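Inverse folding, one chain.
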């Protein structure tokens, strides 16, 4: 009986000491999906056209704070702010949008008014080529890039 035990232990010892060839996995680079948070988004196009700024400093921007569910940015003349909610996959709604009340020339004010009115109608978002697209009923209204 003792000899059988020694034989079994010896066999187990041999198998445990044998080297096994395992496939070495090469780590894959992490794919980082864009997120709403993490910086300022700069408007590239509005309804398929580049916005006409009177001054490069008047670029429209958008920033998200997902923890507080708030937005803020520059609308071409005034600073704006508001809230947002996301639900389902890539659905978004902007609410309680307000802005400062500085007066600017007609081109800047027209652009700002159009932007803020359209922002309130956005109901979805998507990422394409590291750009943020804001959509209304599946139609791309705004395209932003990370600043």
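Residues assigned per position:
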């Amino acid at each position: 009986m003792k000899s059988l035990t020694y034989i079994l232990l010896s066999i187990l010892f041999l198998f445990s000491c044998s080297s096994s060839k395992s496939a070495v996995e090469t780590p894959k680079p992490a794919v980082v999906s864009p997120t709403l948070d993490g910086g300022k988004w700069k408007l590239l196009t509005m309804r398929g056209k580049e916005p006409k700024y009177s001054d490069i400093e008047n670029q429209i921007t958008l920033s998200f704070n997902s923890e507080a569910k708030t937005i803020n940015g520059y609308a071409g003349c005034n600073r704006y702010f508001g809230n947002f909610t996301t639900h389902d996959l890539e659905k978004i709604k902007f609410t309680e949008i307000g802005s400062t009340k500085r007066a600017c020339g007609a081109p800047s004010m027209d652009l700002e008014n159009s932007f803020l009115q359209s922002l309130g109608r956005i109901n979805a978002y998507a990422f394409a080529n590291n750009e943020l697209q804001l959509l209304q009923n599946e139609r791309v209204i705004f395209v932003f890039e990370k600043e």
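The helical segments are 2-17, 106-119. Confidence is low (pLDDT under 50) at residues 18-22, 28-32.
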